[in-house]
Amino acid sequence: MSFSLRSFSLRSFEGTGVEASFLASSGALPLVLAPAAVGMQLVSWTGDHRALLDDALDACGAVLFRGFHGEEALGAERFERIAESLCSPLLASNPEHVTVTGRVQTPVAYSAKHKLLWHNENSFNRVWPRKLLFACEEPADAGGETPLVDSRRMFRELRPDIRDTWLHRGVMYVRNFGSALGLPWQQVFGTNDRAEVERRCADDQVDFTWMPGDLLRTRAVRPAAIPHPRTGEWCWFNQMQHWHVASLGAETRASLASIMPEEEFPRGCTFGDGSPIPEEHVHHILALYAALEASFAWRRGDVLLVDNVLAAHARNPYTGQRRLLVGLGEPTPYSDASVMDEMEVGAL
């Protein structure tokens, strides 16, 4: 099936009890749905119009539900019910997120002074969430937007020689656990048992090396792009910019280099065959993300549903007490035939 914005119309929502629109500041990403009458329950509406919502998400990549809760914060329990209705099953929290309650998390902790770069959530893992749900409990005083980028446009508009090279070679994510700055493997894996870590690495198609000093280095090779599981559209889908040294700010990179060799940095990134990724490639990809991103200002009570394959997301710097809730749903492995078919560039 192929479904895109070209075949999608806002008129599809006429008579459904919601008003559909696009934010002038962000173009077609995200689609905005607002209740036509006060008191409409989001869970009830989505349950009655699930097929329409799925088609809209396929077309637009992200849907912003605005005004269903007025200016009221949802709270974790109500958010979890909404998340279960939109992207069940939800993934369990991991040590790099803070659990609020149940399977509700906060965003990854990251300095408010810096931009968290665009990424497709957990795309370095064998199993990743196909849908993400965010809810705004408290917007930042300034900044703090969640920029979105259409992954289909990224794939289409990348320089062809770069795109084709990445498609053929894939991406290797290298992680050093328990180094000077890396999280200890015991915390990330939730166990002190090396045999359990080795079993889980094997299950997740991750190579591992035990290093001196009870340190662990892992390597995982993943695709750089995949066809969308429902629409078949090719999407740029990886998390290179959180791993490659060229994505670091100059000051951060120099500071790390002053205390350890590059191969011992907490994270690193190469092509899947282990050959280095040219920094020129990294700069081109980052520039295209920046050119394509769309942003909107959060309001208290907003709920944002994102297709993790169709849209990458980021986080802008901010001031104030920004609070969001996060749910990661519909776990999908790379091994799914619907995801992995025709990965070679020659099949495009």
Automatic annotation (TrEMBL):
**Keyword Translocase applies:** no
A biological process (GO) of this protein is: antibiotic biosynthetic process
The name under which this protein is listed is: SyrP-like protein
Q: Which cofactor does it need?
A: Fe(2+)
What UniProt keywords apply to this chain's record, in alphabetical order?
Antibiotic biosynthesis, Oxidoreductase
Write down the InterPro entries for this protein, in alphabetical order: AlphaKG_dependent_hydroxylases, TauD-like_sf, TauD/TfdA-like
Name any one GO molecular function.
Answer: 2-oxoglutarate-dependent dioxygenase activity
User: One Pfam family of this protein, by short name?
Assistant: TauD
The answer to whether UniProt assigns keyword Oxidoreductase to this entry is: yes
